[in-house]
Amino acid sequence: MKKIQYTMDIKASAEKVYKTMLGLDNIETYNQWTAEFNPTSTYEGSWEKGTKIYFVGTDENGKKGGMVSEIAENIPFEFVSIRHYGILDGENEITEGPDVESWAGSLENYSFHEHNGITTVTAEIELAEEYLNYFDETWPRALNKLKELSESGK
C-alpha cells in the first residue's frame, strides 16, 4: 500500500466545503465532483461515524458496482475518514478473497482547515501502487471540480 496526498485551497468556509463534498445539502454536489472518477458516481448510506456506506456507479451495461465502506470518523467541518473493506458487485458484497485482500482496510481521509476564508482540503488515500497513475491524473481534476462547486455557492 502506498499513501498519497492531494490538497486544494478553496475560497469558502470549511462548513461549505464539507457539506458540498459530502453532498449533505444536495447529493448532486457529491455526484458532480466525483463524476471525475465515474460519471455515474454516487453513494448510498450515511456519513455518520460507524455506519456502512456504498460508493457506487453503474457500468456500460447498467450493472451497479463500487466500494463497500465504513465511516471510521466524521468530525463535521474538520475531518472524515472512510475505511474501505469490500466491493459491491451488483447486489453482492465481496469482503474477502483476492479481489479485495490487497487493499481491504485502506483508509481515505479528508481534512478541512479554514484560515482567513480559505479552506485547505487535504485528501490522503492508501492505495495499491498499480492505481497511482490513475489517481494522480484524476484526483486533481476532482478537487478542482469540488473547488468550483464550493466557490460558486451552488
Automatic annotation (TrEMBL):
This is Tungsten formylmethanofuran dehydrogenase. SUPFAM superfamilies: Bet v1-like (SSF55961). It comes from Roseivirga thermotolerans. It comes from the Bacteria.
